[in-house]
Amino acid sequence: MAVLPPNVSQQQFDAAIERLKSVVGDEWVFTSDADIHAYRDHFSYIKDQPNELIPCAAVGPDSVEQVQAIVRIANEFKIPLYSISTGKNFAYGGPSPNVRGSLTVDLKRMDRVLEVDDKRNFALVEPGVSYIDLYNYIQERGLKVWVDTPDPGWGSPIGNALDHGIGYTLGPYRDHFSAHCGMEVVLPDGEILRTGMGAMPTSDSWQEYKHGFGPDPAGLFGQGNFGIVTKMGFRLMPQPEHWRNGLVTVPRRQDFIAMVDTVNYLTDLGMIGEPWYSGGLQALMNNTEFAEAANDFNEEEMDRQALAAGLPSWRVELQFYGSEGTTLANWEYAKELMARNIPGVQFTDGESLPVPLTDEQIQKSSTPYESAMRRNITQGRPGLGIWYMTGRTDFNPNAWNETHIGLFSLVGRGGEAVFQAQRDFADISRRLDMPGFFPNSLAVPVNWYQNSFLMGNGFGAAKGNSPQQKKDATRLLRRLLEENAKLGYGDYRAPPILQDDVADQYSFNNNILRRFNEKLKNAIDPNGIISPGRAGIWPEAYADLRGALRED
Amino acid sequence: MGLTLVASTQIALAQDSDAAVRGKAKFDHSCAPCHGKGPGDDGREMLPGTHSLKIKYGDTLPAALEDRTDLTSEVISVFVRMGAWSMPPFRKTELSDKEIDDIASYIAVSSRAGN
Question: pTM for the full model?
């Protein structure tokens, strides 16, 4: 399985490995097949194929100085690097690089929580710190701040934020990249850059004012390949005193429009946490007559059958953070607004609980309605409970989800836009013969990012696990992305095998965005050593690899 | 009963090596989020790894790793380094060989103590 970096001889590679060992110690340079195995994407669509994205080796630095030295060695030997933090970006490539034969810079050993301040509400961490680590650090010290965690908590706040990951509490904290405040980066030439107030050596505000003075390059390091981030600050949500939830249901399909408008209003006034939308009619899909109406978008018939079954067309579960009094007032206000805007809307009070919730309250909802809300992540409690989705369950006792990929398209944050997307996605999936993931008139958006909706349209689309089936599935996903883009639906995140495809679709003015980024890339990283190909940004040195993964 | 079990494990740990104490800390950090004995999320009876092994082994082996008497360091290494089903492999930067030895020491104690 051993692979060499592109255009690097065995002799040069061996020499580079010796140099790396002199920097980090023999113990932290990994070259054997057995060690490299853990740097592969466990859920890859191209596992064991000749183009699988396997690194040539991995190196585990313990300090910024070691990262600088590694970058300089990579420049000298023209070896492409790919940095990982905790390496858990599963569904988006895991720890695997964009270029086969890259040297993985494994930052897991840099796992220090440098500061958490629960009066000024921020943290400063290194890349190897996981959400679980940061949570434990806060709990052990009794600090009164929360971590906004993605679903699996073994990932890194830095890695997740840099791939534009999301969480589930209040809007400003759910967008993890936007919630960052100040970063330290080792640039492609080995120099160290600090953004925001970190650029002023004497400032006390690095984690409080991210813009500093002049252009802020921080955005280049998110889904980018302009440097290796070695420290990052995050704004943290203060622990609220109270949490409350409640359910809103509306009778007719078209009521979704006013429902979304009202939720947007409450969201943008900072009165609610993440709203959880769900369809109220999924149970009727077993009824052939209803399923036919739903697949045909026959709204009149859907409304008729919903009414006959006594079921709401849509549900949204709201949650409130604050004091007992303010959460109640906000819930009452939400009810008042909804009632003003939607005839026939109904409400069910949920739970009203002092924070922190007990383990029992986290583990099991006693809400007087069927709740879709995953309680631990709404409370900033990282864990791995969600991993059941990938593995052996009572419903899936003899197989596991070998191809794990997540595609979510941006959709306008309005009810009409969602309706249009439902029709478009249904039409596309029919044309592409993707019945296994068949969006229909019941599909709902997620409001992970406060200001936008995402709708899933490609999660686990593989039709089997043989190499040919995986190849066919990948081809299908590429076509799906193309068709989505024609109608304006772009993805926010993608694994390396699809990053060129997604980047192609951000094509305004002859792909000026990518051309601009590549101009910068070539200027800042003339040898193209930092993660070439990441987000479709290919430096000149590796330009011939653009789109190479499309060739089967 | 829970308190009795915790106490018996603590006594066993106190009587055992530092390795088992270190192993418990590492187990709690790196293994327990999926393979612990606690309930899963959203009202699920078990955490995903424990549930998966319950389905796999039925009544022939305990579902919780801390109750297993057959998990030597070598056996744990195979699963940790290779991965198994939806559990991805763990890198040496996450879990060193020595830490795997420590975890094996802890599991030897916890399974003996009937934890």
Answer: 0.95
